[in-house]
Each structure stands twice: as C-alpha cells, then as structure tokens.
Specification:
Layout: E1 4-8, H1 13-24, E2 28-33, H2 40-48, E3 53-57, H3 63-77, E4 82-85, H4 100-128, E5 131-136, H5 149-171, E6 174-181, E7 184-185, E8 200-201, H6 202-213, E9 220-223, H7 225-236, H8 239-248
Parallel strand pairs: 1-2, 1-4, 2-3, 4-5, 5-6, 6-9, 7-8
C-alpha cells in the first residue's frame, strides 16, 4: 500500500525540501501553503510528479479553511499516514521595539494553528484506525532567549500542548512527534543580525527529519547535538546561572 503524507507549510524552506524528499521516495504528497498557485517551486515540482503531488491552499488561522483542506485530502487520498505541521512565522522581538501584533501572529500561526489542525484531524485519524502527526517546533522552546520572546514562547506553548495530548493520542493509535531543531538558513532566519551557531541548510534539516521519522517511534527528534545540549543545560541550571548566561548573549 502506498504511503500518503500531508505537509502543511510546504512552499519554502524545510517544508519544500521535505516535499521533494517524500516524492523522490515514492510517497503521494499533498503540499499545502497559504497560496500554492503562486509558488513557482511547488508548481515546478508538480510538473515532474503529476500523479503523486497535489497542491491545496490552507490558512491555519482559520478552522474552516483547515477543515475544508482536510476533507479534500481524505477525498483525494482515502487515507493519510502522516501529517506534518510546518507552518510558521518569525519576527525578531527585542523588548525595546516590542510589537504586540508580532506576538499575536506567531501565537496564532505557530501554536494555535497546530491546535486547530489537531482538533480537526484527530477524528479522521481515529476513524481510519491509525495516523502520525508531526509538529515542527524549535530548540528555542527549551529556554527563553534574548530577542526571541515571541517566537520562542509560541514554540514552547506548542511543545507543552504536544506533551499534554501525546498520551491521549497514543491510546487512539495516533503517534505524535515533535521536531526541535536549531538554526536553519531560510527566509525567516535571514532576518537575524547575530551569529547563528551550527546554522544548517533547509536540505540538511529536511534530511535529518526524513530519516528520523522513518526510524522507530520517539516523541522528540532534536538536532544539532551541541546546540540542543547547551539549551537543555540552560533549562536545568539554576536561574541565577542560566539567566547570567543569556544576559551575556546580548550585544
């Protein structure tokens, strides 16, 4: 039986590279973004994978849009093996120029978008008897970092939500996995004006995700090792030490 995957946030970066990888490995893929019709990359892929790539617009800020897209996915494919929530936005958020609209947008897309999707897709997975849901989170969820209060808090909320619902989903034979990755060179991280340790390409990150999702089940997939270990230590150190370290990161 062929494998079917739905990638949300597929028009660029990690999502686009994952779309290519899954197509090249024989999957049937539904690639979703806010405006797939005007994505040169996705439409170019479509010309090479006419029978196995389907494009579907989605607005993760709108439950009706998610529901309509999910109905279309199941109608087209009959069943779904994996859904990857990769939709996300990012803005640098220093305190001196704090913009509440940035916080609202990142919360609404990065976190609540995944909540809306989970609410709609869970009954469909339950009805077919299986499924895998993957949230693309971030290592910034481990500890609050300077200038990243909006993005990091939205990803931390996403991880906390995933931790809360994972036991319930497993009882329904639905696997939930989170991806906590470091800095990936995309149009989003191009906004950063600071050094990004262990910066990797979207292709490298997508390959790591692809291979790890193909292994035995584990809740969290994290990389790269050095950065994930550093942020893990920040999280378990006494605040007197960890906050002194993050203070030192300020320029």
């Amino acid at each position: 039986m062929s494998k079917n995957i739905w990638i949300i946030g597929a028009s660029s970066g990690i999502g686009y590279e994952l779309t290519k990888l899954y197509l090249q490995n024989g999957y049937t893929v539904v690639a979703s973004s806010r405006d797939t019709k005007h994505s040169h990359e996705l439409n170019s892929l479509k010309s090479s994978f006419k029978q196995t790539l389907f494009l579907k617009d989605i607005d993760v800020q709108n439950s009706s849009s998610i529901n309509e897209a999910a109905l279309c996915v199941w109608k087209k494919l009959n069943y779904l093996d994996v859904c990857i929530f990769n939709a996300g936005v990012y803005e640098v958020s220093p305190l001196d120029s704090l913009n509440i609209e940035d916080f609202e947008k990142m919360t609404d897309i990065n976190y609540l978008g995944a909540v809306r999707l989970t609410n709609i897709i869970t009954p469909k997975f339950e009805n077919q008897g299986f499924g895998k849901l993957v949230f693309n989170a971030s290592l910034s969820s481990y500890f609050g970092l300077p200038n990243a209060g909006a993005y990091g808090s939205s990803k931390a909320a996403l991880v906390n939500f995933a931790q809360a619902i994972q036991p319930e989903l497993l009882k329904k034979n639905i696997e939930l996995q989170i991806i906590n990755h470091g800095f990936v060179k995309t149009r989003l991280t191009n906004k950063n004006n600071f050094d990004m340790p262990q910066l990797m390409s979207s292709k490298t990150a997508a390959l790591k995700i692809f291979h790890n999702l193909d292994k035995g089940y584990k809740f969290e997939i994290k990389f790269p090792f050095k950065l994930s270990f550093f942020l893990y230590l920040l999280n378990i150190l006494p605040y007197k030490i960890s906050l002194a370290i993050t203070k030192g990161l300020l320029k």
